[in-house]
Design goal:
Length: 501
């Protein structure tokens, strides 16, 4: 799972610190404007700093946004259009019964320390990702893998317990590292960029890998600079210290860039769902009527308007419109305070006080203010509990010690996690679990879509969580910067095509 708020990997921070080298200069476009496109460094601003550089764990979108596809690669990748593409696997074959996948590796691929990629590296990486101690976000989705075998140096065979429609998609989240390397080795990537340094609280730098096995990056390197607030971030863009802002968090920030020929504003599609998640495993949230009541108490249109002023989209389930099993459920459990009160009374719940764990920032505080007001109108008291990233990851994601939480989820196809009763929100519906299992082993894509549409509609009807809205994907760049993806339909922010004219 990758979260928009940098839900912490606190235990990894000590390990990561050992990687941080001396801070480098972070000059922006002003220092590189005379460089040719191939020689230009691109400086990108973000509020989504990694909480650690440990790969193949759930909980933080910062690591996947900066490093996946850029520094570390999988057998497959999900491209900027959301399509699965071959990466370290040049191609693959599937047996007639769908139970054996044979992956043929890129024979020229090598790690950044010069070591050749072999099938043993792939076997070890996948085995670790699906092993009993793994914290990989897609671990449960990959449990269909029964055996991983190195056929020869350039061929890997995966034997499955059943067919899996989503296997190549899920494998995109598992980055391949050297056989047996449990340390955080800076030269362990195979991607178009090498890792240079991460100075926590400031920047992360990667440089072009001139020995890359595939198509080389179109710029000499990228520095991601990290900011705590969007005002400072946008000031840096205005003064020439940045070339591009990955994501604007507020429409108010766009006024200074509109009608200014020095900048380009793009509005694309995202997969970032803002939700108020209940701990469905405990009372009163184990009662579908209570969840529906709390959801119907929320004026989602007002929240979206307050946060995004016309941008974005109200949603009623976990599925964005870019997924083929999307259904518009925005009117399901629509704003109805009287109906909410009736459902609470029917469930025998009164004078309800609910705590909400959240990682504070301007957007979350704005949501919380309106949420508190809406719930008070139906007799529910919301008690805010602001916490930091690392605490959220331990308390909510790992220990499940919470009532409710506000969080943004960025992953594509994360509706599937409602089929896992052990996931942090604890939704447990055997029918949904069966439909998801059937969808993955469906004989055709149409059958998969039909089953996952049913999942989408069911979790929406039962208010498994309270989905608030889908973020727009708004980026601002200097006019001479091109080649960046406008949409964010995958976890990574692929930077190899970005150039300065």
């Amino acid at each position: 799972m990758r979260l928009r708020h940098r839900a912490g990997l606190g235990a990894s921070l000590t390990l990561v610190t050992a990687l941080a080298l001396a801070a480098c200069g972070s000059g922006g476009s002003g220092s590189g404007a005379t460089d040719s496109a191939d020689d230009a460094e691109i400086v990108i601003g973000s509020t989504n700093e990694p909480t650690g550089l440990v790969r193949n764990v759930g909980g933080s979108s910062g690591i996947s946004q900066t490093m996946t596809r850029n520094v570390y690669e999988g057998l497959t990748s999900v491209d900027v259009d959301g399509q699965v593409i071959p990466t370290l696997a040049e191609s693959w074959d599937v047996s007639e019964d769908g139970l054996t996948y044979t992956f043929h590796l890129q024979t020229e691929a090598a790690f950044h320390d010069g070591t050749d990629l072999t099938a043993d590296d792939v076997v070890w990486s996948i085995t670790e990702a699906i092993g009993p101690d793994s914290k990989a976000a897609r671990k449960s989705d990959l449990q269909t893998i029964e055996q991983v075998t190195a056929v020869d140096d350039d061929t890997v065979e995966l034997d499955l317990s059943r067919p899996s429609q989503g296997l190549t998609f899920y494998l995109a989240s598992i980055t391949i590292v050297q056989d047996g390397d449990t340390e955080l080795t800076a030269d362990n990537g195979t991607g178009p960029y090498r890792f240079v340094e991460w100075v926590q609280g400031d920047h992360l730098t990667i440089e072009r890998n001139d020995d890359y096995w595939g198509e080389p990056a179109k710029n000499s390197g990228v520095t991601f600079r990290f900011f705590q607030d969007t005002t400072a971030l946008n000031n840096a863009l205005l003064t020439g210290d940045l070339d591009l802002v990955i994501a604007e968090d507020s429409p108010d920030q766009l006024v200074q860039f509109r009608d200014n020929p020095d900048f380009t504003i793009t509005e694309g599609t995202s997969t970032t769902k803002q939700l108020w998640a209940f701990n469905d495993r405990q009372a009163p949230f184990d009662d579908v009527r209570v969840r529906q009541a709390l959801y119907r108490a929320i004026d989602r249109e007002a929240i979206l308007s307050a946060v995004w002023d016309g941008y974005g989209q109200v949603i009623g389930s976990m599925v964005p419109p870019t997924d083929p099993w999307y259904v518009d459920l925005s009117e399901q459990n629509a704003y109805d305070p009287a109906g909410a009160q009736a459902l609470l009374a029917e469930a025998g719940v009164s004078d309800l006080t609910v705590s909400v764990d959240y990682i504070p920032d301007d957007t979350t505080e704005a949501i919380l203010a309106l949420l508190t007001k809406n719930l008070a109108a139906v007799g529910v008291t919301l008690t805010p509990n602001p916490i930091d990233d690392a605490t959220w990851y331990q308390k909510v994601y790992t220990d499940h010690d919470f009532d409710t939480t506000l969080m943004g989820h960025v992953n594509p196809r994360d509706v599937l996690w409602y089929a896992n009763p052990d996931f942090y929100w604890g939704y447990d519906n055997p029918e949904v679990q069966e439909w998801v299992a059937q969808a993955d082993q469906a004989a055709t894509e149409d059958e998969q879509v039909e089953l996952l549409t049913r999942v989408n509609e069911t979790i929406g009807e039962e208010a498994a969580s309270a989905w608030l809205y889908l973020d727009p994907q708004i980026r601002v760049a200097r006019a001479e910067i091109t080649g960046f993806p406008e949409n964010q339909v995958t976890e990574s922010f692929y930077v190899a095509d970005i150039t300065r004219s």
